[in-house]
Task: structure prediction
Amino acid sequence: MIKITAAVVTLGCRLNQADSALLSDRLIKAGFSIVEEDGEDSPNLIVVNSCSVTAAAARKTRQALASLRRKHPYAYIVLTGCAAEADPEEAADSSDYDILMTNADKCNLETILERRFNITPKKGIHNLLSNDKKIFTEGALSVFPFKTRANLKIQEGCENFCTYCIVPHVRGPERSRSKEETMEDFRNLLAQGFKEIVITGVNVCNYQDGKTGLTGLLEEMLAIEGDFRIRLSSTEPGPIIPKLAKMIAKNSRLCNFLHLPLQSGTDKILKKMGRKYTCAEYREMVEQARSLVPNIHIGSDWIIGFPGETEKDFEHSCQFIEEMKFSNLHVFPYSPRKGTPAAEMTGRISAEQMMARVEKAKEIKNTTIMNFARGLIGHQESVLVERQCSEGVYEGLSSNFARIRFRSKDDVTDQFCLVQVTSVSDEGVIGAKLVNPEPESPEKAQ
Result:
């Protein structure tokens, strides 16, 4: 029997990575062997799970398709993901893929490919919505063949409709994955040997299946015995954040990590963006989290040059963001997305102004990242080792998302190790020494 091979190429967010893991499961069940796109043999099928959250992301999707077509001229290429939803007319003009598949059609991937590859899709439940369209079931479990950490999809869609954001239009209304299937997939990932599982969705804070919300779901996951930890992906600022911080403080297997998208450091621009909090409310959330969890990683997102942002507004944002002392910061120049209210707003800044503001924002970002890293010196951190980067030198992520290197005479790959941070280089490389010679379960530094 001839082996048919497939590669899944993922662009964009952790939710896309989680979606790709579900696509991989569907392909395996249909008879495909999952391979790496840049491996020795050209795959018969390439599924490109795309992103279009910004103009730059959409451009990367087009570039990736062109590159894949050049490298694999005989492969059958499927374009799916948010770029397939947001820019269907533009995508239709491309000859670099063979078929376009919407986000809603991802669950029908095997059926769509049935005749092309002479496969027999596995019969059974695919993507199902409850009668009230609030709960969905994937009918697939996550497969991450080439990853050391796994992303678990628990939620889909958004109804915030921030004025700049295309996501509600390409991902649809809010709905939550059934608790039963979510827990089955969680156990599936533990059985595969993953020691860190990242909980992901468009807006995970709004997860709800019956009486079970996000905190209840996490409690059920954490009740399972095992040598693993859970990390939350991006969480929208709101009333649930203090509850999550309390959970993190009490449970050593829930990572010291919160990513709270801010977007702007002025109330005027936050209101124009359609965000649901003020700077004072955001500051209070951060201060509460830090009071409960010392050394917690607080990351954020910052959009530069939103329509109507004056130089004074930008300076106020810079001041606020410097005061927040984030552990990490994602900086995005504002990108108009067709179909969003912000795309029609006046008050756009020039390209030269945008470049200048972005450069200043990046300086603030670099400073805040370095300050967080240096603040870890002397502290003990639990590191999940991802790789050996040279003879006797290992690297991994701490609970608070610091990438740390240390020496060990033993191979400690894919193990939890307790280390003490000793140095931070000018390039930001965090060095540490091994505290425990034996692998440890993830415990918070005291």
Observations:
- Residues 63 and 161 are 28 Å apart (CA to CA).
